Amino acid sequence: MKQGIHPVYKETTVSCACGNVIETRATKDNIKLEICSICHPFFTGKQRMLDTEGRVERFLNRYKKKATA
Length: 69
Fold this sequence. Notes:
Rhinovirus 14, subunit 4; 3-stranded mixed beta sheet; 2 helices; 26% helix
């Protein structure tokens, strides 16, 4: 391998917006994330549905009526 062409691999901290801090090694210093495995809906099971036009509510109401009818 050639000398002097590889980046420096050093210890760093990865910080999430939720407050989770992970100590790891990387080529960059102090990495900041918006979402991590602690607060991601896929891993937590607490998924929120954003509904601005009432589509989800309309869908649920439509199938609730058919199920009871």
